[in-house]
Specification:
Strand content: 5-15%
Order of helices and strands: HHHHEHHEHHEHEHEHEHEEHHEEHEEH
Largest sheet: 7 strands, mixed
Bound molecules: pyridoxal-5'-phosphate
Number of strands: 12
Structural class: alpha/beta
Radius of gyration: 24 Å
Number of helices: 16
Distance between the termini: 64 Å
Length: 483
């Protein structure tokens, strides 16, 4: 029987062997990635039976355990880092950010109190300022917090906008507000906002889903009419959400018009730029985000187009007092060692308490790639999106969305069947079944089913697009032949 310290810490020889094995597994994955099947077989019994091989009553040696989970990850995972995974906004992680996540786990800084981690908290403060400046916020008023992802950042936006508009909300809650607060999102905005409305006690009835125009952008006139209607019904409009890079179609809502409307109506403007916000890092694309600097708050996910591993979201605001209004509390057990210093304890600014050092993976990736490395990656992906769009059209596919960002939604416009859900689903299935390419299916404006290909890896090259086009050609022929 191992003593408990040997069991948990392992002895030095074992640790050295373990680190070597970990780096070999990681490097092995990075080098073999392109050759493996992108999508796993989806068979719960198979995964569960694999897992039943390990029994916590009979512990196994570290090397064996590591090999076991590495094999599991290899077999039973969608390989989203693959250059021909044209799927959801899941990136190929930058290598420095993988190293950063390992360091964050080993040093395990506690990110609630400044005094427990001056380095970590200041790294995040530095990043929040630097990224806020890219969005056009003023250095003096820019504030924000790292979050687990876009969902938490959007939840934070709802809470801060409620507290800002209805100061009584923080103390008495919604029942302290004499009129029903309502918020405005578009039909194409992210579903995390619905969860956020539930979590804030607003409920989904408080959400107005504004229709989009033919370009899939929020219809600002319809939004204005909705606000007028709700006001005359005695309700209290408080928040308008614009999306910069919709999840389905990568469309950027008209931000200047949204900012004008929000300003005129006294609404908080939140811009959900979870994925598309990365355009702010490429001066060539920055104009597409014009107006974002007028947003009261912004959601931006580093774990999407900044290519860092999962769980790296950001909430940014130009109202430095609002996070504290929403989240500041005092707790007897929090150390008072920073008394008199001009610093902020992160727990007074966020939903989370103890949390991972999220900023490190962003910091290390940026430190090594620089703004210029990111600019090039973003422009490369945008160019690949444009190329894919052209080649799809050249092969008779019809592109159904318009955006400068690399998300391409398409149907086969040459026959009515080519727009049908059955055709779209069958083509996506057929492409996935080869294991060499993966694309998703979505619906535009909740009605039109489309195939959707996103250039989500900075490693995707023209040859990868050719491969996808070949698979699409084959799939189209086969699906038509079978029906
Ligand atoms: C992905 C996404 C979200 C949710 O972010 P998570 O990091 O997955 O929680 C919110 N809004 C938009 C527009 C997104 O694309």
């Amino acid at each position: 029987m191992m003593d408990h310290e040997a069991a948990l810490r392992l002895d030095e020889t074992m640790r050295q062997a373990l680190w070597k094995q970990v780096t070999e597994v990681i490097e092995g994955y990075l080098t073999s990635q392109d050759a493996i099947s992108i999508s796993p077989t989806l068979d719960p019994d198979q995964v569960r039976s694999y897992l039943s091989q390990v029994d916590f009553d009979r512990p196994i040696p570290p090397a064996e355990a590591l090999e076991f989970v590495a094999r599991g990850l290899d077999r039973y995972q969608m390989h989203t880092a693959h250059p021909r995974y044209f799927g959801l906004f899941n990136p190929t992680p930058a290598t420095m950010s993988i190293a950063a996540d390992a360091l964050a786990a080993a040093f395990n800084p506690q990110m609630a109190a400044w005094g427990h981690n001056p380095f970590g908290v200041e790294v995040e403060r530095f990043l929040i300022r630097a990224l806020a400046l890219k969005f056009g916020y003023d250095e003096a008023s820019a504030d924000g917090t790292f979050a687990s992802g876009g969902a938490e950042a959007n939840h934070t936006a709802l809470l801060t906008s409620l507290v800002h508009t209805f100061p009584e909300y923080a103390e008495v809650g919604l029942r302290g507000i004499d009129r029903q607060p309502v918020l405005y999102v578009s039909n194409e905005s992210h579903h995390s906002l619905i969860k956020a409305a539930r979590s804030c006690g607003l409920g989904t009835d408080a959400i107005r889903r504004v229709p989009v125009d033919e370009g899939l952008k929020i219809n600002v006139e319809a939004l204005a009419a909705g606000v007028a209607r709700d006001r005359s019904a005695g309700l209290a409009p408080f928040l308008a959400v614009a999306t910069a890079g919709t999840t389905s179609a990568g469309v950027i809502d008209p931000l200047p018009e949204m900012a004008d409307l929000a300003q005129g109506e006294g609404l908080w403007l939140h811009v959900d730029a979870a994925w598309g916000g990365a355009a702010a890092l490429a001066p060539e694309l920055r104009a597409h985000l014009k107006g974002i600097e007028r947003a009261d708050s912004i959601t931006f996910d580093a774990h999407k187009w900044l290519n860092v591993p999962m769980a790296a979201g950001l909430f940014l605001t130009r109202h430095p007092e609002v996070l504290a209004q929403a989240f500041r509390i005092t707790a007897a057990y929090i150390p008072k060692d920073t008394h008199g210093l001009e610093v902020i304890d992160p727990y007074t600014h966020s939903i989370q308490w103890s949390r991972r050092f999220i900023g490190l993976k962003v910091y290390l990736a940026l430190a090594v790639a620089g703004w210029e490395g990111y600019r090039r990656a973003i422009l490369h992906q945008t160019a690949m999106g444009e190329l894919l769009r052209q080649e799809l059209e050249a092969e008779g596919w019809e592109v159904a969305n318009r955006t400068p960002l690399p998300v391409v939604c398409f149907v086969d416009g040459s026959s009515p069947a080519g727009r049908s859900e059955a055709f779209i689903e069958a083509v996506a299935q057929e492409v996935a079944s080869g294991g060499e390419n993966w694309i998703s299916v979505t619906r535009l404006d909740e009605v039109q089913p489309v195939l959707r290909a996103c250039i989500t890896s900075y490693r995707t090259k023209p040859a990868d697009l050719e491969w996808l086009l070949r698979d699409l050609r084959r799939a189209r022929r086969k699906v038509y032949a079978e029906n």
